[in-house]
Design goal:
With about 260 residues, the chain is an alpha+beta fold. About 35% of the residues lie in helices and about 20% in strands. It has helices at about 75-80, 85-100, 110-125, 130-145, 175-180, 200-220, 230-245, 250, and strands at about 1-15, 20-25, 30-35, 55-60, 70-75, 165, 175, 185-190. A hairpin with a 3-residue loop joins strand 2 (about 20-25) and strand 3 (about 30-35). It is elongated and about 60 Å long. It starts with a strand and ends with a helix.
Length: about 260
């Protein structure tokens, strides 16, 4: 049995002297594991990097077997970001979340498309990486996993404007008017999560990280009795540095 699919490399681990075990997100077949013979060789080193977009070819005698994978490089995302730590942290966090949260061989075409789009924007905007777009992508991940948030109207008043909070229990938006005395118990809803044209500032990104992180931990990773991936924690730490220094993403990425 064999197939050929566009795929995003999520995780790599050494196997034997020269091979790799890879975990990829494919467009139509979801997350797949495979063995790459000679993947650690100098000739293949540039291809097998986390975050790269590839055309993967998988082959095995039976569908349930590990299978062998070869590939052609489509977009070397990782190499574009080597000199841009904040952009690289965004890419690493996205790959880690997909690798650890998605079940194997379950199709997630919308998620694949949104991740490929995020990677494309990162590749061309590495000096000013799209942090707000990344956190909007985390909301897509939650939705794809069956835990989408309801952010289009207030859960209390029904209003569509002035949405500034989210209930940590229901995942529904709440307006300033509807929050009332419960305001301090609600999560912040940064406007950059609602407006695709707004990038926001470091404090907004930290609010977005707190919001999506709460539901990722509660709805997804708690089921596996695991914390959020270390790569995401490193991203949040970098954003805290940005907020503390009062610097722009472009200035800070040289220090992250």
């Amino acid at each position: 049995m064999e197939w050929e699919e566009p795929a995003i490399i999520l995780r790599l681990s050494p196997h034997g002297e020269s091979s790799l075990l890879v975990r990829v997100l494919t467009r139509r077949k979801g997350v797949c594991h495979a063995l790459v013979r000679g993947g650690r060789s100098r000739r293949q080193a540039a291809l097998w990097q986390e975050g790269n977009l590839i055309m993967a070819r998988w082959k095995a005698r039976l569908p349930e077997q590990l299978g062998n994978m070869t590939a052609e490089l489509v977009r070397p995302t990782a190499s574009f970001l080597l000199d841009h730590p904040l952009a690289l942290a965004l890419l690493s966090s996205a790959c880690s979340l997909c690798s650890e949260a998605l079940a194997e061989r379950e199709p997630h075409e919308p998620l694949f498309a949104s991740l490929a789009h995020l990677m494309g924007v990162l590749s061309v905007s590495a000096t000013r990486p799209p942090v707000a777009l990344y956190f909007r992508w985390e909301l897509i991940l939650l939705q794809e996993l069956g835990y989408g948030l309801t952010l289009d109207r207030c859960a209390v008043t029904g209003a569509r404007d002035g949405l500034v909070h989210v209930s940590p229990r229901t995942g529904r938006a709440v307006s300033s008017e509807g929050a009332g005395e419960w305001k301090d118990r609600l999560l912040p809803l940064p406007s950059c999560l609602l407006d695709e044209e707004e990038e926001g500032q470091p404090q907004d990104w930290l609010g977005a990280a707190r919001l999506s992180g709460h539901f990722l931990q509660r709805a997804v990773f708690a089921a596996y009795h695991r914390p959020l991936p270390a790569a995401r924690d490193r991203l949040v730490t970098a954003l805290y540095r940005l907020a503390e220094d009062g610097a722009s993403g472009q200035d800070e990425e040289e220090r992250v």
